[in-house]
Amino acid sequence: MLGWRGRMHMAGLRQRTIARLLGWSEGGVSKGLRRDPVPGPIRAVISAWEVMPPQQRADWLAAHGLRHRLPRQRLVSPGLPAKSAPRAAGQKTTKLQPGCILPPHSDRNFPA
After folding, report:
1. CA atoms within 13 A on the CB side of 31
2. Digit-coded pLDDT (tens) for 7-53
3. Domain locations in the chain?
C-alpha cells in the first residue's frame, strides 16, 4: 500500500506543484507529507490529480497562473504482479491498451 508521498510520485506530481496550487511553501508541503495524518488540503490535491484527465490538469494549473509541463504518467495496473514475484500457474494478467493511463490507488482509500 502506498502512502501519500508514493501516490504523489505515482501520479507524476511534485511537491513544488502542490505547494503552488495550495499557496504554501515547498517546506510546508514536505512537512505535511511527513505528518500523520497528512493534512486534508494535500490529500485533496493528490486525490483530485489522480482522477483528472490531462487536459483538466492543464486547465487547473493555468487557472493558478502556472505554466507547467504536464508530468509523465506512469502506467500502473494494480492487477499486475510485481516483476520479482513469480506468477502462479494459470494466473492471467491485465493487458493495457496503448494510451491507457490508470490512476494509482490504495485499497484503503478506494474500494475495489
Report:
1. 5
2. 999 988 999 999 999 999 999 999 999 998 999 999 999 999 999 99
3. 4-63
The three cell numbers locating residue 44: 485533496
Instruction: Please give the radius of gyration of the chain, using alpha carbons only, rounded to the nearest integer.
Output: 16
Question: Distance between CA atoms of 62 and 70, rounded to whole angstroms?
Answer: 11
Are 25 and 16 in contact, with CB atoms under 8 Å apart? Answer: no
Cβ contact 16:61 at 8 Å:
no
DSSP state of 39: P
Q: Which amino acid is at 31?
A: K
**Rounded Cα gap, residues 8 and 25, in angstroms:** 17
**pTM for the complete prediction?**
0.60
